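Obj.: predict assembly geometry.
Materials: sequence records (below).
Method: joint structure prediction, all chains together.
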Amino acid sequence: MTTKEYNKTVESLADGIFRFALKYLRDEFEAENVVQNTFEKLWVRKDKVDVNTAKAFLFKIAYNNCIDLLRKAKRSTSMEEVVENNYSHTEQYSDAMEIINEAVDKLPENQKTAIMLRDYEGYDYRSIGDITGMTEAQVKINIYRARQFLKSYLKDMQLVL
Amino acid sequence: MKERNDIDWKLFELLENDLSPEEEAEILAKIEAEDGLADEWNLVQQTRLVPPDVTYKGKKGLLKKETVFLEFANLSWLKYAAVIAIVAISYPLWKSYIQDNASEMAGAVKSIENGEDDNSEVAEIGSGEVSTDKPTNETKEVTTPKTVARSNGYSAPGTEPGGSPNDKKEQVNDDENRDEYQWTPLVLQPKGYAQLVNESTRYSAGSVLNTTAYEINDLMYDGHDDYGSGYAMGLRPIIDGSISWMLSPFQNSKLRIHRVQDNRMLEIEYKSIQYHAVAMVNLKGFSGERKPQRH
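Observations (raw structure tokens):
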């Protein structure tokens, strides 16, 4: 990958990586750090990374970075905060999109990653599997379960509203 | 329950475009036929995430400046232009320097021959002080201008036949050593750099300038007794070739360097067809000893 190709990759994928990390971590500062670290790693290995596989490479790096950060955060999160998050539903929803976004944050990590890569970035099952280390069947079933959860959540919320 | 799961799976596959055209047509027909299934399909469609409009602001900080590689071939004319410019600038300076040095040498030779400058260090050689303080292992020779003029078949400008009385005295004192040192002319060939530093000169340089000029010696030759194939590698041939070109006016000149007075001084003797000069260099400040550092 040349410097020109690297810069093009930054222009086209930085927003996507940031969106993915932001949705995953729900922390803008941490998401910016993930983007910087991800592209730094790409720059270091730019001679070995082909421009056609750069997107998958970047999302894989970003995903692993997010996982590491979440694990660290989980270790430092107290039990009280967890309970508070699970039982507080004071937000007012304006439309189904906000409900869905709220529901995505409640998905297990595998389902969340799979459905985000599928819908945000348009990846097929194989590519998602390459990034996350899952098989194609696992990816598909995770996306299915995620959609089932979202559908149920949406149905429940509509009933409440 | 199984039938319900099958319907959910079919709706999911319909959303994911994983159904064949026949299966797709079949499930769409069912959706149209059943109101409950249409509501279900509506909910399933809402589970498709719409990417939020997020922009990463630090994009410019991630961009890298492109490295521009200039082909060396494209710069060849610049290279030659630079060389020509350097030569054009340096040649007049070099020539004036050479002329100044030559006239100074001629003046020095006249002084030596006429014994005019008795206070100079050069004159001390003529007075015989050096010969009385002769190091045990050093070859001592001071050749008079008269002798040089005779040996070369030329008379140095301003030289009187027979030389000065001091010259005669020195000649008598050094008669025993006269044939011990054979002059070896410096044969300077711009392309034949292998002969630039011949054995005798190399020996002199190596033995005399082993402190202050040690790095210069390294540039001039590789320190081996003979010039191997390694001599022709790297910058050395270029440097030697350049030095040869610079020194070409001194072709067939002779140079001798000796340590005298217990290695405290260098005696540098230069002989050419026209000139003969002897200079003494005090090595007091070039002993290689380090000054004690302040703490």
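Conclusions so far: The mean pLDDT of chain A is 82.
To do: check interface contacts against the pulldown list.
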